[in-house]
Amino acid sequence: MNAKSTDQEQPIRFGGTELGGRRHICGFFRTPEEEYQLLLPFIREGIERGEKAFHVVDPKLRDDHLRRMESAGIDVAQAEKCGQFELCNWEQMYLRDGHFDQDRMLETWHDVLVSAGERGFARTRLVAHMEWALEDREGVSDLIEYEARFNLMHQGNRDPVICTYDLTRFSGDVIMGVLRTHPMVIIGGVLQENPFFIPPEQFLQELREHREREGLPTTVK
């Protein structure tokens, strides 16, 4: 059996439990310390196994993110040099050309994950900070629809994807929408199946019907 097959069969420990087949996860945190206490062992495990790490952060927090990784014993420079680790700021990914385009973003993630597999990585561990959606930019109001559609693109995928949300900054309505579009959730540092999750096909249909009732443009895909 080759090393890649062995890596794929190794369990992924995260948030106090073993990660199953549903790997689109929303993580709710109140402080960076709470967030990184949970994320760093998960990130380090992937690096040690030779997996791909792809992270998206606030451009103002890029240096802090790298410092925290290094403090956890991760050789960031070496991981970047060999292409195992990529760190992007959200202007490069979510807000390219100054706005958010959910179609473009879904295509980008598809390409990122497929490309890593083609380069021989057993899996990609993707971590994305989501506070970009609080910025006053065109398209950011499509956040929840985008999260629902991500499930359709990511179905059956081997790659764990963690969308982190600062509970102190998002409204209750947005948090509820996030909950309804992620099959797994981290609350209080514990990973669990999300009882509020709605299958994406059903969620998107409900979104279309809601917009029709409200007389809003029905641009839902």
What would you say this structure looks like, in words?
By secondary structure, the protein is α/β, with parallel strands linked by helices. The chain has helices at 3-9, 32-48, 62-71, 76-81, 90-93, 102-118, 143-154, 172-180, 200-213, and strands at 13-14, 17-18, 24-29, 52-57, 85-89, 124-129, 161-166, 184-187, 190-193. The strands form two sheets. A seven-stranded mixed sheet has the order 5-4-6-7-3-8-9, with helices on both faces. A hairpin with a 2-residue loop joins strand 1 and strand 2 (17-18). Helix 6 packs parallel to helix 7 and helix 7 packs antiparallel against helix 9 (200-213). It is globular, with a radius of gyration of 17 Å.
SSE layout and pairings?
Blueprint: H1 3-9, E1 13-14, E2 17-18, E3 24-29, H2 32-48, E4 52-57, H3 62-71, H4 76-81, E5 85-89, H5 90-93, H6 102-118, E6 124-129, H7 143-154, E7 161-166, H8 172-180, E8 184-187, E9 190-193, H9 200-213
Parallel strand pairs: 3-7, 3-8, 4-5, 4-6, 6-7
Antiparallel strand pairs: 1-2, 8-9
Strand elements, count: 9
- Whole-number average pLDDT? 91
Low-pLDDT regions: 1-7
Q: How are helices and strands ordered from N to C?
A: HEEEHEHHEHHEHEHEEH
Shape: globular
Largest sheet: 7 strands, mixed
Count of discrete alpha- or pi-helical segments spanning 4 or more residues: 9
Give me the Rg, rounded: 17 Å
